[in-house]
Amino acid sequence: MNKEISLEKAGRFFFFSIIQTILHWSLPPVRVWLLRLLGATVGKDCVVLDCSFSNAYHYGFRKLTIGDRCFIGDEVMIDLRGGVVMEDWVTVSNRVNLVTHMNVGYQGHPLQKTYPTKESPITLQRGCFIGTAATILSGVSVGRESVVGAGAVVTHSVLNNRVVVGVPAKRVRT
């Protein structure tokens, strides 16, 4: 076994893989209840469809905050390592990726010196909408009532009341 993967870390990975399976087979109201039980903060009247949570074995679900009346669609991938905050009225469409960290590989990987492991939270502010298959990268904040177009890759924070589209995402409208 690689020395970076301890028995404890392997056990946590196994445990959270089982949790992911249970979440996958749960109905949305039960899924919300389970997320709260696992340490996430989830507001009232939220719908969490069949999404996946990666890197839970690092910190569990305590870095996940979902406000009131949020909707998270099917096949959304939420990387929990850096933390995700969704304020009230946020909509995350199907197949969105919320990527909160970067890690190019094990210690000793030739790119580690140039690109050290980094984790930063993603914040989706009140009333924003994230379109289908968009990707939001580490450290990004999407402003209040902003729209991220389908398939966009958001590498920098978005101001309030903006519409961004493309790869990388650029403002098309205020």
Structure commentary:
The chain starts with 6 loop residues before the first helix and ends with a strand. Helix content is 19%, strand content 26%. The chain is an alpha/beta fold and 174 residues long. It has helices spanning 7-25, 28-37, 56-59; strands at 41-42, 47-48, 52-54, 64-66, 71-72, 77-79, 84-86, 91-92, 97-98, 101-102, 118-119, 122-124, 129-130, 135-136, 141-142, 147-148, 153-154, 163-165, 170-173. Strands 2-5-8-13-16-18-19 form a seven-stranded mixed sheet. The chain is globular, with a radius of gyration of 16 Å. It contains three helices and 19 strands. The chain has one domain (7-173): UDP N-Acetylglucosamine Acyltransferase, domain 1 (3 Solenoid), CATH 2.160.10.10.
Summarize the topology.
Elements: H1 7-25, H2 28-37, E1 41-42, E2 47-48, E3 52-54, H3 56-59, E4 64-66, E5 71-72, E6 77-79, E7 84-86, E8 91-92, E9 97-98, E10 101-102, E11 118-119, E12 122-124, E13 129-130, E14 135-136, E15 141-142, E16 147-148, E17 153-154, E18 163-165, E19 170-173
Parallel strand pairs: 1-4, 2-5, 3-6, 4-7, 5-8, 6-9, 7-12, 8-13, 9-14, 12-15, 13-16, 14-17, 16-18
Antiparallel strand pairs: 10-11, 18-19
Quickly list its features.
174 residues; five-stranded parallel β-sheet; UDP N-Acetylglucosamine Acyltransferase, domain 1; seven-stranded mixed β-sheet; alpha/beta; 19 strands
Short recap of the structure:
The protein is of the alpha/beta class and 174 residues long. The protein has a single domain, classed as UDP N-Acetylglucosamine Acyltransferase, domain 1. It contains three helices and 19 strands.
